[in-house]
Amino acid sequence: MNAANRVAANTLILYGRMLLTMGITLYSTRLVLNALGSTDYGIYNLVAGIIVMLSFLNTAMATSSQRYLSFHQGRKDLQKQREVFTNSFFLHIVIGAIIVVALEVAGLFLFDGFLNIPADRIDSAQVIYHYMAVTVFFTVITVPFNGLLTAHENMLWVAFVNIIETLLKLGIALFLYTLSSDRLVVYGILTASIVVVSFVLYSVFCFRKYPECTFKGVMKPEPGFVKELAGFAGWNLFGALCGMGRNQGLALILNLFFGTVVNAAYGIANQVGSQLQFFSRTMLRALNPQIMKSEGADDRERMLRLSMMASKFGFFLLSFFAIPIIFEMEAILRFWLKEVPPNTVIFCQLILLGALANQLTIGLQSAMQAYGNIKWYQTIVGSVIIFNLPLAYVLLKFFKVDAYIVLVSYVIIELLACFLRMVFVKYKLGLSFSIYIQKVYLKEMLPILGCVLLNIVMINVFDFSYRFVLTAIVSGFIYIGLIYLFGLEPHERSLIKNSFDKIKGKIKGL
C-alpha cells in the first residue's frame, strides 16, 4: 500500500472510530451528569481533572517516541528503531514514577483548604484523587506502545482499543444508576481502572507484532540516547503541560471565584471542544508519520507541503461541525443535557472559537516536531499559552469581569500562539509567510465566510423545534461545495475526483 492510500485508509478507520466513540461519549456524559448531579460532576471535573489531564499528555509524549521511530523508519534503520523503543520505555517508567510521587505530594496541599469543595465531599474527592494518581503510571508507560503503533501507521488496533475504552465508560455510566452508595467515588475508581485495561491491550499486541518492540535492553539504557530522548520529550512535555496546565488552571481559577457549578459548565465546554477536535486530530494522526518520515528521508519540501495540508484540512474538518454548532449551541445543549448549567452555552462557543484558532497552524506544530530542535519553540509558545492563567486571575480579581471573559482571553492567546508558530517555521524551516497565507489562510477565507453568512440567515429566517438539524444539513452541504470550489488546490480536487472514481468503479464491480 503506497503512502497516499495508507493515509486515506487510516483516516477512514480513525473517523469510523471517532464517530462511534463520540456519540457514545456524549451520551455517557449526559448519563453521568444526571447520575452525579451538577455539584458532584463539577467536583469530578475539578479533582479528577487535575490527574485526567495527564492522559492527554499520552498523545504529546507519544509524539516524541513516534518522531524518532518514524524518522529512523524513513532512514530504514531497524536497529536504531529498537534502541529508540527500549530507551523510550525505560525513560517513561522513570517519568511515570516521578509524576505519581509529585501528584501525591501535591495532594497534601490541594485538599488542605486550597480547593473550593463542599466539606461533606472532601473525603470522596480525596479517594478519587489517590486512585487516579496511581493509574497515571500506566498512562505514561503506555506512551511508547502508542508511539510505535502510530509510527507503523497501524490505526486499526488504536481504533479497537479506543472503542473498548468508550464502551467501558458507557458501562460505568449505566452502572451508576444501580448504586445507592457514593456514586462519585465508584465512578472515579472505575474510570481510572480503564487506563490499566488499555495498557494491557496496547503492550501485548505490540510485543507480538513488531520486532523492534522488546524488553531486551530496557534495563540497560544508553545514557547518551536517553539524554537525547529525554531532551526532546522534556521540551515536548513542557509544551503539552503548558496547554494542559492552562486548561486545568482555568478550572481552578474559575472555581476560586465562582464555585463548582461553573466548573460543571467549564467541564462540559471542554468535553464538547475535545470531542469535536477529534475530527482534525484524527486527520493529523494519520498524516504525522508521513511528515516525520519525509524529514527523516531529507525531503523537507514534501514535509512542509504535508504540514500546510494538515493545517488547512484540520481547520476545514473542525469548522465543518463547529460553525453550525456555535450558532445552534443553546438548542443542542438543551437537547443533549436537558438541564443546562449556567454559562455553559457561552463557554462552549468560546472554547470552539479557541479550537478553530489553534487549527490555523496545527500542521506547523508537526513540522517543528519533525525538525527536532524544539527547545526555544516550546519555551516561547508554551510560555505564551500558560500566560493565560495570570491574565485570567488579574481580570477576575481586579477588573471583576464575568466568567466568560476568561475564555475570551483564551481565544486571543490562541491567535497569538498561531502567529508565533509561523515565525518559528519561517526562520527554522524556511517556509515563507506569503506561501502559507496563499496556500492556507486565503483558501480558508471564502468557504468560512460563506458558511458563517449562511448560518446567520438560517437562524434568522427559521424558528422551529430541532431547527439545528436543518441548519447542520444545509450548512454541511453548502460548506463542502465551497471548500471544493475555493478551498482546494487543483491537484487536491483531482485527487478527490480520482478517489471517488475508484470507489464508484469498485461498487460497479460488485
TrEMBL record:
Coarse class of the primary localization is membrane
Xref: Pfam families: Polysacc_synt
One cellular-component annotation, GO: plasma membrane
Q: Carries keyword Mitochondrion? A: no
Q: Where in the cell is it found?
A: Cell membrane
Q: Does the keyword Magnesium apply?
A: no
Q: Keywords, A to Z?
A: Cell membrane, Membrane, Transmembrane, Transmembrane helix
Which InterPro entries does the record associate with it? Answer: Poly_Biosynth_Transport (IPR050833), Polysacc_synth (IPR002797)
How is this protein positioned relative to the membrane? Multi-pass membrane protein
**Membrane spanning stretches:** 12-29, 41-63, 84-108, 128-149, 156-178, 184-207, 313-337, 343-364, 376-396, 402-424, 445-462, 468-487
For this entry, the protein name equals: Na+-driven multidrug efflux pump
Q: Which organism is it from?
A: Leeuwenhoekiella marinoflava
Per the UniProt record, the lineage of the source organism begins with: Bacteria, Pseudomonadati, Bacteroidota, Flavobacteriia, Flavobacteriales
